[in-house]
């Protein structure tokens, strides 16, 4: 007796034309061509890349939260319900910080120079180093290359017991960042390498020794700021100019301060550094200035000769000549050094060299 659902052998019904073919069986029926629309909708693995999925491209616009001024006050009072966004000043600062934090392959050496002393060269070196170190994630070091007992360490850490001379004496045994750190002091995140304070010994700091020091520290530091001496003809200065990727010339909006800065540029051009002058940044330290001096004319003279001019306003904290703390700078002073740092950070990537200006195109200071 068979069950109702069983089929007796030989009584199996023939498969209908609607039944699926057994797996592996060859089909003799022709395959219909794929519609053009289906081909267009087929996934294409090479249609894009992960680089396209950035925050800027996929996140809907929302105003940044303001951090300063009445905009920040309004945002706080309303609990964030009213967000006027950031103002032009704050947006400019954000742009400067993005430029300062630009990735840097390898190392970059910045030389800060002046033919005349007392115009704020060491102050500019110190503040520039502090701003770069505070806003970058890599290592920044300030080197005092003044052969005449420089004061860079005095303005930053007051630690001058260990100097660049100590590093030179033990340079053959310096193989790591830890080894270098034995000869530096720390100001915030900025490493400082002091100059020799004994004038009799500091005179021996020549070009060869400067290059030896730079060869070691550029292995471990991304940004090297050199506070050079006031003279342009001493041996260490030759090495500073030869290795510098960026050049900062410091002057002042006074008759002697402006003319000395301009003569510094003349000397550099006469000795084959014309392209460095064209790419340089001139800093006008406005600690000493007079209403009788035409600041606009001074600025125009240097703008024609160099890439950019930055004015650093008078600041009581810097005028004391003591240890520098960024938190104690006036906002306008801090902004000036942020601007300077951003300009120099623009040189961390590829940059088209600026054309040198013919002398007849430069506005006279006379």
β-strand number: 8
What is the N-to-C order of secondary-structure elements (H for helix, E for strand)? Answer: HHHHEHEHHHEEHHEHEHHEHEHH
Shape designation: globular
Low-confidence segments: 6-17
Report the major sheet: 8 strands, mixed
* Alpha-beta content class: alpha/beta
Count of DSSP H/I helices: 16
The overall pLDDT average reads: 82
DSSP strand (E) fraction? 5-15%
Query: What distance lies between the first and last C-alpha atoms, to the nearest angstrom?
Result: 127 Å
Q: Taking strands numbered 1, 2, ... along the chain, how are they ordered across the largest sheet? A: 3-4-2-5-1-6-7-8
* Rg computed from alpha carbons, rounded to a whole number of angstroms: 33 Å
**What percent of residues adopt helix (DSSP H or I)?**
25-40%
Question: Can you walk me through this structure?
Answer:
With 366 residues, this protein is α/β, with parallel strands linked by helices. It has 16 helices and 8 strands. It has an 8-stranded mixed beta sheet, sandwiched between helices. β7, α14 (295-305) and β8 form a beta-alpha-beta unit. The radius of gyration is 33 Å and the shape is globular. Mean pLDDT is 82; it is low at 6-17.
């Amino acid at each position: 007796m068979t069950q109702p659902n069983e089929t007796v052998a030989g009584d199996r019904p023939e498969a209908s034309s609607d039944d699926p073919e057994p797996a592996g069986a060859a089909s003799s029926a022709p395959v219909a061509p794929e519609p053009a629309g289906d081909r267009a909708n087929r996934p294409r693995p090479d249609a894009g890349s992960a680089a396209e999925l950035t925050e800027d491209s996929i996140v809907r616009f929302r105003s940044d939260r303001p951090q300063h001024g009445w905009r920040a006050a309004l945002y706080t009072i309303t609990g964030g319900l009213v967000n006027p966004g950031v103002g032009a000043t704050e947006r400019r600062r954000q742009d400067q910080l993005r430029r300062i934090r630009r990735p840097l392959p390898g190392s970059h050496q910045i030389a800060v120079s002046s033919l005349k002393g007392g115009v704020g060269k060491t102050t500019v070196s110190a503040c520039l180093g502090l701003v770069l170190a505070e806003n970058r994630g890599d290592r920044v070091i300030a080197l005092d290359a003044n052969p005449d007992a420089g004061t860079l360490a005095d303005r930053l850490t007051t630690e001058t017991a260990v100097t660049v001379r100590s590093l030179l004496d033990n340079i053959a045994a310096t193989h790591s960042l830890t080894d270098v750190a034995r000869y530096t002091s720390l100001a915030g995140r900025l490493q400082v390498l002091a100059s020799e304070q004994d004038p009799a010994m500091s005179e021996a700091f020549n070009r060869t020794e400067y290059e030896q020091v730079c060869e070691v520290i550029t292995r471990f530091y991304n940004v090297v700021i050199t506070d050079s001496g006031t003279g342009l003809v001493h041996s260490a200065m030759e090495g500073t100019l030869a290795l510098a990727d960026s050049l900062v010339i410091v002057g002042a909006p006074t008759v002697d301060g402006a003319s000395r800065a301009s003569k510094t540029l003349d000397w550099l051009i006469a000795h084959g550094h014309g392209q460095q002058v064209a790419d340089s940044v001139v800093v006008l330290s406005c600690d000493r200035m007079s209403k009788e001096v035409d600041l606009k004319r001074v600025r125009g003279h240097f703008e024609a000769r160099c890439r950019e001019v930055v004015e650093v306003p008078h600041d009581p904290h810097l005028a004391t000549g003591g240890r520098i703390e960024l938190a104690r700078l006036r906002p306008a002073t801090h902004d000036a050094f942020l601007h300077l740092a951003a300009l120099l950070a623009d040189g961390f990537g590829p940059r088209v060299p600026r054309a040198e200006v013919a002398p007849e195109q430069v506005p006279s200071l006379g």
